[in-house]
Amino acid sequence: MKDQQRINRYELWLAAVRRNGEPRVTYPCPHCDHQLVALKPAAGITWDSFSTCPYCGGNFYKVIGTNHKGEAEVTTTNYEV
């Protein structure tokens, strides 16, 4: 997928998430530091996934969870294929 297409798809998704009022968390891409957004899991839930930054194309592994206060916590690890 071309860079601009990837960015456009991400921005369309982000607009829908905002429009729907979905809880979200912001975190920096571990490659380019661009601020990215992900859905925030419910308290006590942890999600993990391999991800690609829509802006730089860098691959990384991310873990998103919530602490005992319900605050989101995101960790990322660079991943090169």
Describe the structure.
The chain has 81 residues and is of the alpha+beta class. The protein is 22% helix and 40% strand. The protein is built from one helix and five strands. It has one helix at residues 3-20; strands at residues 24-28, 35-39, 46-52, 59-66, 72-78. The strands form two sheets. It has a three-stranded antiparallel sheet, with no helix packed on it. It has a two-stranded antiparallel ribbon with strand order 1-2. The protein is globular, with a radius of gyration of 13 Å.
The fraction of residues in strands falls at 35-45%
**How many strands, which pairing sense, and closed or not: the largest β-sheet?**
3 strands, antiparallel
Which structural category do the helix and sheet elements fall into?
alpha+beta
The arrangement of helices and strands along the chain is: HEEEEE
Low-confidence stretches: none
Beta strand count:
5
Q: Count of helical segments?
A: 1
Distance between the termini: 16 Å
- Spatial order of strands in the largest sheet: 3-4-5
Q: In which range does the helix fraction lie?
A: 10-25%
Mean pLDDT: 92
Please tell me how large the radius of gyration is: 13 Å
Molecular shape: globular
